[in-house]
Automatic annotation (TrEMBL), chain A:
It holds the Pfam family FtsX. This is Putative ABC transport system permease protein. Keywords: Cell membrane, Membrane, Transmembrane, Transmembrane helix. Its main location: membrane. The chain crosses the membrane at residues 21-41, 278-301, 337-362, 382-403. GO terms for molecular function: transmembrane transporter activity. It is found in: Cell membrane.
UniProtKB/TrEMBL annotation, chain B:
One of its GO terms (cellular component) is membrane protein complex. The keyword Nuclease does not apply. It comes from the Bacteria. Keywords: ATP-binding, Nucleotide-binding, Translocase, Transport. This is Putative ABC transport system ATP-binding protein. The lineage of its organism: Bacteria, Pseudomonadati, Bacteroidota, Sphingobacteriia, Sphingobacteriales. Belongs to the ABC transporter superfamily. Macrolide exporter (TC 3.A.1.122) family. GO terms for molecular function: ATP binding; ATP hydrolysis activity; transmembrane transporter activity. CDD domains: ABC_MJ0796_LolCDE_FtsE. Residues 2-221 form the ABC transporter domain.
Length: 419, 222
């Protein structure tokens, strides 16, 4: 029966070319926007080839000086992390790192690059694919060796074709030897960068802040829990450590540092919130999605109702030969879902193409900071989510017309009378 | 096979009440070929729709196979139509987006436990019975009126229904084509024992059936 519905759905789509075109334009545009948004969110929170353990990787990037229940977030100092975090026992591995950047110039054209300062553990928590060479090790971090791992895009920028390992690039006017080239991470991934150097070899250290320099700074910690469940143990150990810290000023009652997964960080509605609020996040996301789908759904409902009127005789025939109202409603919903899935497929392809246009646009707005095309990655999760959206879209826009259709009196339907 | 007792059908609007059928009492026996005749608007098609469970009478009883059809829900009526009845319409009512064989398969789509291959086999057999086995992949708009009506007959018989209800099956055809369709129905009645109730305007066609029931202004006149 499903095969028959699918066959008929495509026949109807081809018969009503104008209707199909209008519908597909609406659906594909909607799905394109949803795909791009979902892909960005997925890059922020989802696991990828470079960060396969995101579900059990906690990132500690803020410390809160609490006054009763409220706190002011700030980035964390290196000494604070070295004293309280790198000495934790529950995580499998701990890495400290910070984000920065530098500007290079070639042929008089300046260009900004992302630069990450990290330790050796960074490479074992993440899973970068090395196209050349290897990551820096503990000895190189300890010795503050001037070595750098670069992304394949940065390699192309500096060296074009051929190997980069062993060659020299200048960061802040200081020569660094390239020891590895990695495949790029997704654009918004926390581990992603253009270049990585040992944090000890920082050629332009940022002076500590004037206020509570032992606590506040510019560093973050990545903590790999032994399992997803163990993440709670890590958090509990951090809490226990924090409770022992005496705040640097009597106006504060305690110190709080939250290590959260990427998803939990994303679920913090305001940056100042110490804890994630999934209920609020999902309500907001679902409400946005629903409102965004509402207008195309309403127009598709209208188009569908006029389409059903044209198929009245067919409905009458099917009812005469034994189709019940619910079977007919099911058939129409399936047909509509096939239509929306086709539109969705076009939408996903458009999103992929449009992402390049988006990157071109962003690059045009900020010529200093160039994003490479390979960094917009459409994961299977996003594609699956979009297929889910199409089914939801198809169901939502098909259910009311299908209900009206199924309630048609068979005699009226056979006479071709409208709804 | 079909028994109608005191069946009435009244169409009501806010201002007018029209009696389409008045106190109709008919018994159609198993294996009979009956035609219903009368002028336009006399209630023939309404009667056929009621017999076909496509419409409900305003009052009176319908029995099919000694089963009183009363208060049946949509699903049960649909099942009854699917199992017991086959329809042939004056304007064929084939689905233009489906091929001939797909059109014929329609009644079997709504029958549980019939696989795709079995459906196809039965549809091809039905098409063979009406002499259209060479047109299975064609679409309705590629066929003549007579061929379309033969497809409609194949669709009506594919599920081996006990009763076929034909609403002016030759009404849109010329005399030669009409004769051809009538012969197929007579053959079906004779060889398969299918009960056929046919609405027609054509006296010649009606005379070929076993019994003629005449209607005038919603009343049975013989």
């Amino acid at each position: 029966m499903l095969k028959n519905y699918i066959k008929l759905a495509f026949k109807v789509m081809l018969r009503k070319k104008y209707f199909t075109f209008l519908t597909l334009v609406g659906i594909s545009f909607t799905i394109m926007i949803i795909t791009i948004t979902a892909a960005f969110i997925d890059q922020i929170v989802g696991a990828s080839d470079t960060e396969p353990n995101r579900g059990r990787t906690l990132v500690l990037k803020e410390v809160f000086l609490m006054k009763d229940d409220r706190g002011r977030p700030d980035e964390v100092s290196l000494p604070f992390l070295q004293r309280y975090i790198t000495t934790l026992r529950t995580p499998e591995r701990i890495s400290i790192y910070r984000d920065g950047g530098y500007v290079s110039a070639r042929n008089g054209v300046p260009r900004a690059h992302r630069l990450k300062y990290s330790d050796e553990n960074f490479w074992s928590i993440t899973n970068f694919k090395f196209l050349e060479g290897r990551p820096f090790d503990a000895r190189q971090v300890k010795n503050a060796s001037r070595v750098v791992v670069i992304s394949e895009e940065l390699k192309d920028y500096y060296f074009g074709e051929g190997n980069a390992a062993g060659k020299i690039i200048e960061l802040f006017g200081i020569p660094f030897r390239v020891i590895g080239v990695v495949k790029s991470a997704p654009l918004l991934s926390d581990a992603g960068s253009d270049a990585w150097i040992p944090y000890t070899a920082d050629p332009a250290p940022v002076p500590p802040p004037a206020e509570w320099p032992t606590i506040h700074g510019q560093y973050k910690a990545m903590l790999l829990a032994r399992s997803g469940e163990d993440a709670e143990k890590v958090k509990a150990e951090i809490d226990a450590r924090m409770r022992k810290i005496v705040p640097p000023n009597p106006q504060f009652t305690s110190v709080k540092a939250n290590a959260l997964t990427a998803l939990q960080h994303f679920a913090k509605v305001r940056n100042s919130d110490p804890d994630p609020d999934f209920a609020q996040l999902f309500t907001a996301l679902f409400a946005c999605l629903f409102l965004f789908l509402l207008i195309p759904v309403i127009s598709l409902i209208n188009l569908n109702i006029s389409r059903i009127s044209e198929r009245a005789a067919e409905i009458g025939v099917r009812k005469s030969f034994g189709a019940s109202s619910s079977t007919l409603a099911g058939q129409f919903i399936v047909e509509n879902i096939i239509l929306t899935l086709t539109g969705g497929l076009i939408g996903v392809i458009l999103a992929y193409l449009f992402s390049d246009a988006l990157i071109l646009m962003l690059n045009a707005f900020d010529p200093l900071f160039q994003i490479s095309f390979g960094q917009f990655i459409l994961s299977w999760r996003v594609v699956a989510f979009c297929i889910g959206c199409c089914c939801f879209f198809g169901f939502l826009s098909g259910v009311y017309p299908a209900y009206r259709m199924s309630k048609m009196h068979p005699v009226n339907a056979l006479k071709g009378n409208n709804l | 096979m079909i028994k109608l007792t005191d069946v009435e059908k009244v169409y009501r609007t806010s201002t007018i009440e029209t009696m389409a059928l008045s106190k109709v009492n008919i018994v159609i026996n198993k294996g009979e070929f009956v035609s219903i005749m009368g002028p336009s608007g006399c209630g023939k098609s309404t009667l056929l729709n009621i017999m076909g469970l496509l419409d409900e009478p305003s009052s009176g009883k319908i029995e099919i196979d000694n089963t009183l059809i009363s208060g049946y829900a949509d699903k049960r009526l649909a099942h009854m139509r699917n199992q017991k009845l086959g329809f042939i319409f004056q304007s064929y009512h084939l689905i233009n987006d489906l091929s001939v064989v797909d059109n014929v398969e329609i009644p079997l789509l709504y029958r549980k436990g019939v696989s795709g291959s079995e459906r196809r086999k039965k549809a091809l057999e039905a098409l063979e019975k009406v002499g259209l086995n060479s047109r299975t992949k064609h679409y309705p708009n590629q066929l003549s009126g007579g061929q379309r009506q033969r497809v409609a007959i194949a669709r009506a018989i594919v599920g081996n229904p006990e009763i076929i209800l034909a609403d002016e099956p030759t009404g849109n055809l010329d005399s030669v084509m009409g004769e051809e369709i009538m012969n197929i129905m007579l053959q079906l009645n004779k060889t398969e024992g299918t009960t056929i109730v046919m609405v027609t305007h054509d006296e010649n066609m009606a005379n070929k059936t076993e019994r003629v029931i005449r209607f005038f202004d919603g009343r049975q006149v013989n």
